[in-house]
Amino acid sequence: MIKNVYIYILVMASVTYLIRMLPLVLSRKEITSTFVRSFLYYVPYACLAAMTFPAILSAPAAADMPMYVTYAAGAAGFAAAIISAYKNLSLLKVAVIACAAVFIVERILLLF
Amino acid sequence: MNGKESFFKGLHDGVPIGLGYFAVSFTFGIAAVAGGLSIWQAVLISLSNVTSAGQFAGIEIMFAAGSFWEMALTELIINLRYSLMSFSIAQKLRRDVPFAHRFLVAFGMTDEIFAVSASQEGKLHPFYSYGAMCAAIPGWTLGTLLGAVSGSILPDFIMSALSVAIYGMFMAIIIPPARKNKAVMAVVIAAMLLSTLFAVVPLLNKIGSGFVIIIVTLIVAGIAAAVAPIKEGES
Q1: pLDDT tens profile B40-70
Q2: FRET partner for A70 with CA separation of 20 to 30 A, picked from A38, B12, B61, B131?
Q3: Pick from B219, B120, B165, B199: which is nearest to A47 by CA?
């Protein structure tokens, strides 16, 4: 059971809304600083990359599954995602291929 | 275009967005329930936040019992890009519409709704945004509901495979632009290496995952902005 769930939700929803609302309501001028514009341009890439790796390696988990299977399956899912994303496949296809790679590697390793 | 026409144009453009959201929020619903949230709580998060990366990071902090400050800072950093979008849309809104509309338009400022709004010719009517929101937000919320419901009945090994779905989607978002732009590629690789450092180096690995994301993002995006500033017209 997670404590204070509704306070967490209130905090995340309020911060997210304020970020969206304040510039719309307060500003009538456009940002001209090249540094700030560049920084905000790079933010999503840095953020999503940091969230993905190395977290993806320890993501696959099930009851009684050894850690080496988790890491191997995570690595396979990561490799599959990178390759299929590199080939410009759609969001959904990349996700499905990554899941399939995890599934296959887990099944093979758990045979032994 | 009047309000009604703008609304239906937004609704029309919002349908593919809503369908795309459905798949992502389905995964969110599964992840939320897998970590211990109730179905209703998962749906409430989607309905009140309407943001993918921020929500995934948010539930990670809940699962790790992080502080409210960690939650607030993480959401601030991850969603900072929305402020740039809101700045841009603030310029594009019609001046003759009542001020109050800006509060409502802000709620639906997602990457995708921003993209279709910014691509409209001339000034933007707030009813265009409302139309897009009316298609996109139900897709986001219903996807979460169905994901949460199926997440609580699916077997272990399916949940294990699905746990990487969101990371797959992240890669699908960042890898294609990284292929075309060397600076973006460097940012992606540097961010992954740096966050690995935070995961394995003693002491550094005691820092909460939310803060690691903030620190890595600030350092890597900051250096990239200084070393490789974007040219006008990009972004």
Answers
A1: 999 999 999 999 889 998 998 898 888 999 9
A2: B61
A3: B219
Chain B 182-221, residues with CB within 8 Å of chain A CB atoms: 183-184, 187-192, 194-196, 199, 209, 212-213, 216-217, 220-221
Residues B149 and B187 grouped into a single domain: no
Q: Which residues of B touch A63 (CB under 8 A)?
A: 156
B11 has a pLDDT exceeding 50: yes
Q: SS in 3 state form for B167-213?
A: HHHHHHHHHHHHHHCHHHHHHHHHHHHHHHHHHHCCCHHHCCHHHHH
The number of domains in chain A is 1
Alpha-carbon distance B58 to B45, whole Å?
9
Residues B105 and B187 in one domain: no
ipTM for the whole predicted complex goes beyond 0.90: no
